[in-house]
Structures are given as structure tokens and as C-alpha cells.
Amino acid sequence: MHGWRKVWVGAVVVAAGLCCLAGTSRAQTLIKYNEGPGLKLSDSLVFHGGGAVVMSYDSNVFYSKDGVSGSFVLMPMAHLDLATLPPQRLEGQPEGTQMLDFRLRFATGYRAYLSDNDNVKKQSNLDVDAGLALTINPHGKVKGSIGDEFVRTVTPQNQEGPGSYVRDHNVARARLDVAPGGGMLAFSVGYSFILDWWEKDLSGLGGSNPNMFAHSFELGVKWKFLPKTAVTLDVSEGLVSRPDLVVGGVHHPDSYPLRVWLGLVGQLTYNLSTILKAGYGNGFYQSATGRPNPANFNNALVMAQLRFQVAPTGALTLSFNRNFEDSLFSDFYTDNRVKLGYDHMFLSRLLVSVDTGYAYRQYSGLDPSVWGVSSRSDHLLEAHAAVSWRIRDWLFVAAGYDLSYVNADTAVSFGGQAYDPDYVKHILYLKAEASY
Cβ(98)–Cβ(138) under 8 Å? Predict the structure, then answer.
């Protein structure tokens, strides 16, 4: 039963938080970098390149309740970007007249676990983050854009074991924007194809694979009734399928997630900007083998953010989000998430940021014949603190701390054995980076 504990705690608590619906744009990645001044290749094209080294300490590599798998982690990273120059850096071309906005990027990093434990060492692996974005007529009344984003992430399994969850996440999208007249009223239509590919079958799922294929169709309308404030309407309809995900003879149901948002977006006062959206969501989960009556989300959605400029270079942000996502082990989960953060820039070069967040997550549609329970609720707490100093235009150093904590209201079981998915994880890191 040891493998099942790995899968349940790791994939539900960790990977399920990364799993995407048709409305989710991309997976998380550990590859984050700054951009330097760049090397001009022509009047409109610039090349950016750079590298970094991150040394961190991870207190709980395997996300286990006992938290005994601490390790230092060394991660060298590199990135290459090719892009058009921003409007303010164009020479010999009036601002707003360029016909193309283009960026091609590639970043990679190797995480080496420096531990005496062989199972921890075997978690060492390669992350990749790449993308392409092209916009035609970016400042025109009619503009079109295409793009692709690829992320490869490697997440260690729970408890000691040499395996990892290796996931390739790709999003290809196309969009058309039309803003007739003076641009007070704007329309957009878009399409995205999302592929979530797991490089290895999960042994704890009986050798099945949670690969996901998703389509999303989007429609947007914006009415800019004030210079910096607009009313928005956004509608998305998707198709999400995991055809190879079968656990205990039970197939994961397909779904047709619908989300409709009506919002107020913009700057209300000199110091206060907002994103206020209320909506409706319905998963339209379909019957599947072993799941003739899957659970379904059919409820309200909320997206709210208030950002208050407390000083010329300091801002306080408060947000609340209620949404639902497809899940590997249940049919779906619902998140109610609140977050508070503050960031402040000192002397134009030193950025200090802190934030903390809490989420109440409810899993719906767990098959009790497989997991022993039909639902589960988790309390998730996270906190982050970071300091970043831009020593030169091309040289950066940073330090930070990350906390993640999960407490589930009930244990789950497989084969009559109970498992506890709770864990606490601390990460401390130092980073040195050169980017040009």
C-alpha cells in the first residue's frame, strides 16, 4: 500500500492543485527570471539572454506528514529570449505604428538535490519553460494573436521513493480582437487547445494515466465607459477529457465546463484599482463507466481584487477567488481562496514583497468504493517573503522564504488502510542572476 500513499498525498494535494481546466492557461514552473537591457539585432528586434544559480533548502521534499526528507537543492538556470522592441525603444518608427509584436522564449533549469539519501537524490531532474507569442497589428482596431506555451515540471512523490510526477503542459491559443470606432466597445473571440501529458503512468492508479486533452472557446466584450474603467463580459465553454484515467474500473468523467463572468475592471480612484467579477459556472460532468451519476459543479463564481497604492512605490493587494477545477481523483474540487500581499520598491532597485493566503478546498465525487470517502475538505495555507535587489541593469540578487501547509478534515483509505495527507513545507532560497 506504500505506493498508494505516494499517489494520494502527492497527486491530490500537490498535483491536483496544478491540474488545469479549459479555463486554466498554464502549469506552474520554478523557472522565474528577470530581463536585462538586451542586445539590439535590428531597429525592431532585441535578444535577451541570461543565467542564474539558486541555492535553497527544502524541509520536506516528499510532502510527507513527518517531514523528515529535508535537502539542500542547487538549481542552475538559463534563458534565451528573442523579441520585438517595446514601443518606447523603437527608433525611426512612430509609437503605435508597428505591425508585429513577437516574442520567442526558452528557459531551463536543473534541480540537483544535495542529500545523502539516494531516494532524494533521484528526484533531481530538468524543468523547461518555453513559449511563442505573435500579435499582428497590436495597436490597431483589429488585431490577431497566436501563441503557444510549454512547461515541463517534475514533482517528487510523497514519502520516500525514487519516482517523480513528470508532467508536460502545453497550451496553444489563437485570438481575434476588434475595437471599432473610438475603442469604447471592444470584442474578442478565442480558442485554446490544452494538453496535459504525464510522461509516466502512475503506479498508484493501477498503471493508468491522467493525460488530459481540453478545448476552450472564449468570447469577451468590454465597454470602457470611463477613461480607466470598463464593464466586462467573459464567456468560456470547454471540453475536458482524461480518456486513460481509470481507477478500480471507474473512468474519470468528461466535462464541458461553462464559465460566465460579468465584471467591473479599472481604476476607481487615484490610489485604488479593482477587478470585481461575479459569475456562474457549470461543469456539465458526463456519465462514465463506473460513474453513471458523477458529481457536478453548478454554482456561483467570484473573482475580486483590490489594489491600494499606499505610497508612490508601495501597494497593498487583497483578493478573493471562488472557482472549480477538474481533479485527478475526484470529479472536481472547489476552491475559496483569499490572499493579502504588499510590495514596496526602494530606491528604484530594491523590491520587498510579502503575501499570505488561505484556501478552503472541497473535493466532490470521490468514489467511496475506491477511496473509502465520497468527499473531502482541505485547509491550505501559504506564505511568501522575498527581497530582490537590482545591482546593475543586468545583475540581480534575491532571497526568500516560502511556506505551504495542508490540513485535511478526513483521512482516505485504499484497501482498508487509512492515509493522512497533511504536510508542512518550508523553503529558503538565495539567488544570483545575470541577465542581458
Answer: yes
